[in-house]
């Protein structure tokens, strides 16, 4: 297995990583609160390859965060990934954004992991996993209230992570809830999933692949 380039642009974090056989080789990202994908993504891709003595021709595949997340961010990331795959005749791998975000939580932290991505007002994009990363509910858009995720909170300790955490902390006081603040999806966690999918040849159709927006685009 060769080197896989991973691209994450679903939130404000413009992030690219190089991985090989499930190991992170290099990471470059702009971890802040402003969208910079249009200005930085292609620059980061060029830089991370050069800094590691590689050329685009050394890549075996490109992985991209497929969403949900920012409409514009996802389109920029997917367009870049598809462009590389077309020009280099590489396979395209898609990674669910919430799955890779959940991987930032220590598996020993509790019983469940629930990532929350901000989706305007009191709504979030969310999915649920056991501590062993088995899905307990699929990706969905959800309006938060003080009874949200109660069935999991009553069963055991739940760790919430993502930029939607700040909203939920204000209305959730359950003893089994813990919150990981200030975390955004990163290409670093995509490396393991991309390697597994590459080994299984779980590739997307480059011509027809589209991001998973979950909701229709709304102009600001």
What does this structure look like?
By secondary structure, the chain is an alpha/beta fold. The protein has six helices and ten strands; from the N terminus they run βββαβαβαβββαβαβα. It has helices at residues 37-51, 71-88, 97-102, 150-153, 165-169, 190-199; strands at 3-8, 14-20, 23-30, 59-67, 92-96, 112-118, 123-130, 135-143, 158-161, 177-180. The radius of gyration is 17 Å and the shape is globular. The model has no long low-confidence stretch (mean pLDDT 94).
Key terms:
globular, alpha/beta, five-stranded mixed β-sheet, 220 residues, 6 helices
Topology:
Elements: E1 3-8, E2 14-20, E3 23-30, H1 37-51, E4 59-67, H2 71-88, E5 92-96, H3 97-102, E6 112-118, E7 123-130, E8 135-143, H4 150-153, E9 158-161, H5 165-169, E10 177-180, H6 190-199
Helix pairs in contact: 1-2
In helices, the fraction of residues equals 25-40%
Radius of gyration over all CA atoms, rounded: 17 Å
What is the overall shape?
globular
> What class would the helix/strand composition place it in?
alpha/beta
- Estimate the mean pLDDT confidence: 94
The run of helices and strands is EEEHEHEHEEEHEHEH
Instruction: Give the termini distance in whole angstroms.
Output: 43 Å
Q: How many separate helices?
A: 6
């Amino acid at each position: 297995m060769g080197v896989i380039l991973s691209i994450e642009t679903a939130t404000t974090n413009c992030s690219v990583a190089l991985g090989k056989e499930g190991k992170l080789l290099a990471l470059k990202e702009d971890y802040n609160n402003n969208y910079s994908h249009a200005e930085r993504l292609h620059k980061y891709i060029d830089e991370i390859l050069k800094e590691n003595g590689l050329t685009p021709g050394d890549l075996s595949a490109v992985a991209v965060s497929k969403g949900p997340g920012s409409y514009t961010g996802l389109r920029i990331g997917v367009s870049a990934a598809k462009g590389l795959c077309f020009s280099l005749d590489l396979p395209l791998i898609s990674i669910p954004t919430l799955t890779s975000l959940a991987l930032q939580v220590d598996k020993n932290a509790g019983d469940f992991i629930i990532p929350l991505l901000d989706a305007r007002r009191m709504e979030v994009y969310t999915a649920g996993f056991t501590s062993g990363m088995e899905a307990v509910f699929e990706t969905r858009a959800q309006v938060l209230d003080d009874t949200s995720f109660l069935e999991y909170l009553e069963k055991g300790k739940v760790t919430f992570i993502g930029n939607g955490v700040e909203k939920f902390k204000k209305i959730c006081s359950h003893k089994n809830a813990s919150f990981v603040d200030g975390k955004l999806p990163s290409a670093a966690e995509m490396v393991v999933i991309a390697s597994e999918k590459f080994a299984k040849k779980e590739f997307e159709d480059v011509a027809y692949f589209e991001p998973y927006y979950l909701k229709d685009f709304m102009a600001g």
